[in-house]
Design a protein that fits this description.
- By secondary structure, the protein is an alpha+beta fold.
- The chain has one domain.
- Strand 4 and strand 5 form a beta hairpin.
- The longest helix is centred in the first third of the chain and has 54 residues.
- The chain is rod-shaped, with a radius of gyration of 28 Å.
- The termini are far apart.
């Protein structure tokens, strides 16, 4: 009698098919995990940039007097009340470069600090009513085929509008 050792062709084909399904499922799970991680990193960047931008604007305007808000809500001009002397500054929402800039106009050339670079949407704007300024930030992150928009609103009490 012949003693058979090994697998038949049918057993090998079934084993390879099962292994292929297991490997494909593992790959899909890993790929989805990486996509979720990339999305979460983009979301975290938006929240961090939004918080940093709102904090910077709030800190700038809290001890200032607003002298002008442009009609389109894209430029806010104000004067700081620093102990070393007043400084004229502007906050510019630049929808072309997708960033918010704080310009110190009292220096030549003007010192520019950028915030939310590459994330700012054109819908961002300042609105002003009496001694309250509202900043509406719309930050957008594009990752692959998905786009995510996050809104930040802050109201800042300032000195009277001149």
């Amino acid at each position: 009698m012949l003693s058979q050792k090994g697998f038949t062709l049918l057993e090998l084909v079934i084993g390879i098919a099962i292994s292929s399904f297991v490997l494909a499922a593992t790959f899909l799970m890993l790929n989805n995990g990486l996509l979720i991680q990339k999305h979460n990193f983009a979301q975290e960047r938006i929240f961090n940039e939004g918080r940093k931008t709102v904090a910077a604007v709030s800190n700038e305007l809290r001890q200032s007097t607003i002298t002008n808000v442009s009609a389109d809500g894209q430029i806010l001009t104000y004067t700081t009340h620093a102990s070393k002397g007043a400084k004229t500054k502007q906050i510019i929402i630049d929808s072309t470069n997708h960033a918010l800039y704080i310009d110190d106009l009292s220096q030549a050339p003007a010192l520019r600090t950028a915030y939310a670079t590459g994330l700012l949407d054109a819908a961002s704007q300042f609105t002003q009513s009496n001694s309250i300024v509202e900043l509406s930030l719309h930050l957008v992150s594009n990752t692959n085929a998905t786009s995510q928009t996050t809104f930040f609103n802050t109201m800042i009490m300032t000195g009277p509008l001149l």
